[in-house]
Write the structure tokens for this entry.
Amino acid sequence: MIHRPSSRPSPLANPTRCSRLFSPFFLLLGAVSAVWVLGARSWVGTWHGLPNTPLTTLFFLAAATTASGSLPSRYRWGVVAGLGFSALGDLFLLLPQDRFVAGLTSFLAAHLCYLWAFTGDHRLAERPLPFVLWGVTGLVLVPWLWPGIAGPLRLPVVVYTAALLAMAAQAASRAYTHRNLAGVMAAAGAALFVASDTLLAIQRFRHPLEGGRFWVLGTYFAAQAGIALSVVLFPRPAPNA
């Protein structure tokens, strides 16, 4: 009997097709890792899953790094750098010593990287309304938190809040202009980042929240996943005819 080679090519024989699997694979790993972190409290009675927090962020970083196709390098690497600084911030916040300022600084750098990515194809504050709305949010939130913020932390918190809200406003402005799924995911991720940090600030500077850590981490992971997805879903230029 003569064995004829199969006419169906292996997916691994096509590097381009194979590379398209990397981002979904890392996104899946990130989702599984996030579920483990969030479920650890219920499953084993402690937050032993928390060391996976930086790892979860790194999975989303890998998804953005390996996204196939041609997209602006400023957008890709701005998001990748932001995810990298976020993973560093995760690590600082897990240390037994209080590294809040170091973590805050890392996340400040992350938001500046995201802002840099979001201004590559959209002028800063091109749509003023999101900046007005997020600005009002900050003007309400910071004075409410102010009494609980220790003196040395007040300036860092104000600077951080300004960068966070500017990043979220720019993402919303950009999404409104471009009107594509990638832009919506970036804006949703940025808004969830504000929600996560707001919950964290309430826990630290006002009062504990019932299930607070779960909601802080849940919104945080969703935020980073959304921003990473904006790279994976970034519209590719149409092929030349």
Summary: The chain has a mean pLDDT of 88. Residues 21-232 form one domain.
